[in-house]
Amino acid sequence: MAAAMASLSDPERTGKVLEAAGFEDIRITGVQAATCWGQDAADAVDFYVSRHPGAEVTEPARAAMRDALRPYETERGVLLAAGVWVVTARAG
């Protein structure tokens, strides 16, 4: 089984999960979109680290992450490009 954060990142697996649940006419379309990871670089680091419970992240590593994310800070928050799936299906 895939890790929680990426459990449905493979469109083939997503289709199989939906088929097994009885869905039909499954369509999966890739879309590029900007995603907001936090209000600023520090908030984005906190969010990312929170997705990995139990992971020990040192302050020097957090500082490097903040530095890496600062170029992506905007008035709307830390925006990163992402590939997402738009999934539609009909209950069978």
Description:
- This protein is 34% helix and 34% strand.
- The mean pLDDT is 92.
- Helix 2 (41-50) packs across helix 3.
- The protein has 92 residues and is α+β, with helices and mostly antiparallel strands.
- It has a 3-stranded antiparallel β-sheet, with helices on one face.
Provide tags for this entry:
single chain, 92 residues, alpha+beta, 3-stranded antiparallel sheet, 3 helices
Helix/strand/pairing category: alpha+beta
Strand order of the largest sheet: 1-3-2
Major beta sheet, specifics? 3 strands, antiparallel
Secondary structure tally: strands: 3
Global outline: elongated
Terminal Cα span = 25 Å
Question: Which residues sit in consecutive blocks of at least 5 with pLDDT less than 50?
Answer: none
Helix content: 25-40%
- Count of discrete alpha- or pi-helical segments spanning 4 or more residues: 3
Radius of gyration: 17 Å
* Strand percent estimate: 25-35%
**What is the succession of H and E elements?**
HEHHEE
Rounded average pLDDT: 92
Protein topology:
Elements: H1 11-20, E1 23-36, H2 41-50, H3 59-69, E2 73-74, E3 77-91
Antiparallel strand pairs: 1-3, 2-3
Helix pairs in contact: 2-3
Summarize the structure.
The protein has helices at residues 11-20, 41-50, 59-69; strands spanning 23-36, 73-74, 77-91.
